[in-house]
Amino acid sequence: MLSASLKIAGKDLRLCLRGAQGLAQTALLGLLIIFVFSLSRKPGEEVPALAAAAIFWLSTLFSQVLVFSGLYSLEEGNGARMGLAMAPIAPQAVWLGKALAGLTLVVACQLVFGVAVAAFLGQSVSGSMLLALGCVVVVDIGLVALGSLMGALASGKTSRESLLTVIFFPLIIPVLLAGIRVLEGVILGGEGLDSSLDWLGLAGAFAAVFSAAALVLFPFIYTGEE
Q1: Strands in 16-137 per DSSP E
Q2: Could you tell me the pLDDT band of residue 122, with boundaries at 50, 70 and 90?
Q3: Which of 62, 88, 126, 153 is at 20 to 30 A from 164, Cα to Cα?
Q4: Mean pLDDT of 111-117
Q5: Residue 219 in contact with residue 164, Cβ under 8 Å?
Q6: Are residues 218 and 152 in contact, defined by beta-carbon separation less than 8 angstroms?
Q7: In sequence order, what are the residues at sequence separation of 6 or more whose Cβ sits closer than 8 angstroms to the Cβ of residue 2?
Q8: Could you tell me which residues come within 8 angstroms of residue 100 by beta carbon, excluding any fewer than 6 positions away?
Q9: With contact defined as beta carbons under 8 Å apart, do 164 and 65 qualify?
Q10: How many CB atoms lie within 10 A of CB 17?
């Protein structure tokens, strides 16, 4: 399954990065969100760490919707979805391949968002950089696990972007809150770091739940089997 997933992820990345228009538009949306929030502060006013962390994850969340909407639309335009669904591979390989491709694209956007948060909101990491990276990775796993499942559910439907957004956002709130609180603790350094680790555990638990649910539900959603 892993080999097939890597091939699907590679195919999707090549298609998405061809010309890089899709990735550029996604990154620009996140940058626009960060820039607009930066205009709300007065010159020289310090942005609270909690607000900066929330803005970072909000930008990531909106980018996530665009990424998976684009990934699952690749097979819709030329009718290739049926061929992929009938391929001699486990249906879960499609979910994992899309998730890996989405994770790569989201992380690429987050690198830009991190620089923008530091530049526009005046933030820096006072705590452990390792914990910061761990926070982002754990939360991203939860995001892409659910995002890949919701992308399959919304693909091929009328107004699929709206459907993906309506279903995705309520489910992702717990892991998103955990990401915000952990990143806040990392920015503040030692303040509240113990509670941040508790939130990181919560994010990991939800990532595991989303992944397990996706593995079970994806074949029925993508192939339409009863």
Answers
A1: none
A2: confident
A3: 88
A4: 90
A5: no
A6: yes
A7: 93, 96
A8: 5, 6, 9, 144
A9: yes
A10: 15
Identify the three-state secondary structure at position 158: coil
d(CA 72, CA 16): 11
pLDDT tens digits, residue range 129-146?
777 788 888 889 988 988
Q: What is the pLDDT of residue 151?
A: 79
Give the chain's end-to-end CA distance (angstroms, integer): 22
Backbone angles phi, psi at 88, to 5 degrees: -75, 55
In the prediction, which pLDDT does 226 show?
41
Which pLDDT tens digit goes with each residue over 186-225? 776 655 566 677 788 888 888 898 889 888 888 877 765 5
Buried b (16+ CB within 10 A) or exposed e, 72-82: bbbbeeeeebe
C-alpha closest to that of 56 among 110, 135, 124, 130? 110
Report d(CA 131, CA 108) in Å as an integer: 19
Answer whether 187's CB lies under 8 Å from 49's CB.
yes
* DSSP 8-class letter at 48: P
Alpha-carbon gap, residue 99 to 146, rounded angstroms:
9
- Assign 3-state DSSP to the chain and report helix, strand, coil percentages, each to 5: 80, 0, 20
Q: Counting beta carbons within 10 angstroms of the beta carbon of residue 142, is it exposed (0 to 12), middle (13 to 18) or buried (19 or more)? A: buried
Burial of 217 (0-12, 13-18, 19+ CB in 10 A): middle
